[in-house]
Specification:
Elements lengths: L14 H14 L12 H8 L3 H13 L3 E4 L3 E4 L19 E2 L9 H17 L2 H5 L3 H4 L1 H13 L10 E4 L2 H12 L5 E5 L6 H7 L3 E5 L1 E2 L2 E2 L1 H10 L2 E6 L13 H13 L3 E5 L13 H4 L4 E6 L11 E4 L5 H11 L5 H13 L1 H23 L13 E5 L5 H10 L2 E2 L1 E2 L13 E5 L5 H16 L10
Parallel strand pairs: 3-14, 5-6, 5-9, 9-10, 10-11
Antiparallel strand pairs: 1-2, 4-12, 7-8, 11-12, 13-16, 15-16
Helix pairs in contact: 1-3, 2-3, 7-14, 8-13, 10-11, 15-17
Length: 461
């Protein structure tokens, strides 16, 4: 560290965190380049007149942030900048590839017909506030009141309209919820096989993730309890109702046990329930069991139609001002025209009609998957948009490459594992992302590869 050294006069309590922040800024600003070897903990402690333990904790904090790497026998080094993560799905459809990589609901002519009719009606009857107003409280009071109806269908019978924010889809709602519940540097617990978008989103917000062990119902409460005792966890992000990669549905007893752990450790709960009423006979949402500390996220894109990018974020009373402020600085407000369309569809029954259509379409597609994968183990749920397929004896990257060579795109399981989880080879197969006519041959090609002996791909596509 010849070109730069920490400033001991700028250290504040806690000293280890202040030191870590100084080094982190130096890395971001280019004052400490990738590959730079840092002084030993003892030497830096002597230089700054700190304890070795303080410097050790600072280095450990920077390793957790992904900025440093410790190599036994060699020292501590500045890591190269993180490469932007690749999405688990194809960014765009390529040629004749059957795309089973992107998670989306099934779609057909009915969706286009309903949308065209709604847009024609909107062109004649759009309210002036949707076009002319900058103020969310002017535009959305009616929309929030109607949202209560949809949330009732999601399993939340007692939501007040004042606790609802309309957002531009679930990702915007997730961002607001994370910013509302956790300051920069805080740790968020989540499923060890979880939401792929959460990983880069947490990184951009300066948050750390802790993957919690799961079983067939999702997060294991005892594992969350242990993690809370070992570290300072501020919130738990959970997907209890089928949308998670393993398509698991958390039972009511497990939900109550999870809520008990969160309440005992004063954790905020962020519940991602973007399938909403699509999942039949599901237990009460966590937000119904613990309304005072749960932020609930749902949207229309996964259960009605992808183009209706409107979501609802329900927050407890005490967090309404904080969530509103964070919404203003990140999005200002939801797109008023889409919000108007979503509200009308909830009012006139179109949203429910298309949700029920989706259930029936998924029923047919799951029946097809059972026929094709008759001897191949996989996990799913009758209302899930996907299958989770463990790879027995296959290398994941090689299998995904082979599938592409055979004209099928799938999502690699590695995209969904949250440290410190141990990655286990698997793929996620979307059954809603293409037509039924394409889905069968896509599944058949995958089944053939899964039944075949593993073979390295000789070509990269």
């Amino acid at each position: 560290m010849t070109m730069w050294r920490p400033d001991p006069t700028a250290l504040r309590r806690p000293a280890y965190l202040s030191l870590a922040d100084q080094i982190a800024r130096a890395i971001v600003e280019g004052k400490l380049e990738a590959g730079t070897r840092l002084p030993t903990q003892r030497h830096l402690a002597e230089d700054l007149q700190l304890s070795t333990q303080t410097v050790s904790r600072a280095y450990e904090e920077l390793i957790r942030r992904g900025l440093l790497s410790g190599e036994i026998g060699r020292g501590t080094f500045v890591r190269p900048p993180r490469r932007e993560p690749d999405p688990p799905y194809l960014p765009e459809r390529l040629g004749e590839v059957i795309d089973l990589s992107i998670l989306k609901p099934a779609g057909d002519q009915i969706h286009l017909d309903r949308m065209k009719a709604a847009l024609r009606d909107l062109s004649e009857t759009v309210p002036a506030s949707a076009i002319l107003s900058f103020r969310p409280n002017v535009v959305f009071p009616r929309h929030r009141a109607i949202a209560v109806q949809w949330l009732r269908a999601c399993g939340l019978p007692n939501v007040s309209s004042g606790n609802i924010s309309l957002t531009n889809g679930a990702t915007a709602a997730m961002t607001i919820a994370l910013m509302t519940t956790a300051p920069t540097g805080a740790t968020i617990a989540t499923e060890q096989v979880g939401h792929h978008t959460l990983v880069p989103l947490a990184s951009y917000l300066g948050l750390k993730l802790c993957g919690i062990e799961i079983d067939a119902e999702g997060i294991i409460p005892d594992a969350l309890e242990a993690a809370c005792r070992q570290g300072d966890i501020r919130a738990v992000f959970v997907q209890p109702s089928v949308i998670n990669p393993t398509a698991s549905l958390m039972g009511e007893a497990r939900r109550r046990a999870l809520v008990a752990v969160a309440q005992r450790h004063r954790l905020a709960i962020i519940e991602n329930d973007v399938l909403g009423p699509l999942v039949e006979d599901k237990p009460p949402p966590l937000a119904a069991l613990a309304p005072d500390n749960t932020l609930y996220v749902t949207s229309f894109t996964k259960c009605v139609v992808p183009g209706l990018r409107i979501g609802y974020l329900v927050v407890p009373d005490r967090l309404v001002p904080s969530a509103a402020n964070r919404h203003l600085v990140t999005n200002w407000m939801a797109t008023a025209l889409l919000a108007e369309l979503a509200t009308r569809w909830v009012e006139n029954g179109t949203a429910m009609e298309l949700m029920l259509w989706q259930r029936e379409a998924l029923r047919r597609r799951h029946a097809m998957a059972r026929e094709v994968f008759t001897d191949i183990p996989y996990r799913s749920h009758p209302n899930a948009l996907h299958l989770w397929v463990p790879l027995k004896g296959h290398d994941e990257a090689q299998f995904v490459a082979h599938a592409r060579l055979h004209g099928v795109a799938v999502a690699p399981g590695a995209s969904f594992f949250i440290p410190p989880a141990v990655h286990r080879n698997a793929i996620r197969v979307s059954i809603g992302s293409t037509s039924e006519a394409e889905l069968r041959p896509g599944l058949e090609r995958l089944a053939h590869l899964l039944r075949s002996d593993p073979e390295p791909a000789l070509l990269v596509v």
